[in-house]
Amino acid sequence: MNAVKTIFAIALIAVMTAGRPVTPGYEIGDTATDFKLKNVDGKMVSLSDYKDAKGYIVIFDCNTCPYSKAYNERIIALNKKYASKGFPVITINANDPSISPGDSFDEMKSRAKSKNYDFPYLMDETQEVARAYGATNTPHVFVLDKVSDNESKVAYIGAIDDNSRNANAVSKRYVEDAVDALIQEKSVPTTRTKAIGCTIKWKNS
What we know:
Layout: H1 2-17, E1 37-39, E2 44-45, E3 55-60, H2 66-82, E4 89-93, H3 105-114, E5 121-123, H4 128-133, E6 137-138, E7 140-148, E8 151-158, H5 174-183, E9 198-199
Parallel strand pairs: 3-4, 4-5
Antiparallel strand pairs: 1-2, 1-5, 3-7, 6-9, 7-8
């Protein structure tokens, strides 16, 4: 009887974990592999396109998540503050549109136009980039430090700040603190926090 229960438990775990990404993703200090994804303007975008960048603020985001909507203006503000300082924002939508129709490429184009995005909003159609990074939520931030023309190191992973509900009640600005430290060639004060948001909508197959 115990053997039957054990087999049932193993089968249940297998069903519950099916379809979930198995790659652990990046850790602090890892080298981030470049990517080439389609932007809402139809052009392909890579990290290597930013020849003068000192680093990157890569954010896995989407149209539909309430947390993404709450952080939308803060993401726009991050690019306005840091792109000119060498740390551009690059947003990536990895949600499967067959599960979340509001995250289709056409809807992405509409969102970018309505919000006047001045940064890339890329579609990770295969979800390979999200899996490589270990992204789990929207929004989920990876601050990269460009150490050479062909190499960027992961310097921060996690949330944008410590208050997803109210931008006016933020007391810790994790991404800003990380980027400011890198600009000043100092150690990042907080390298990892928990990303708060909706789970990425993974493909079933």
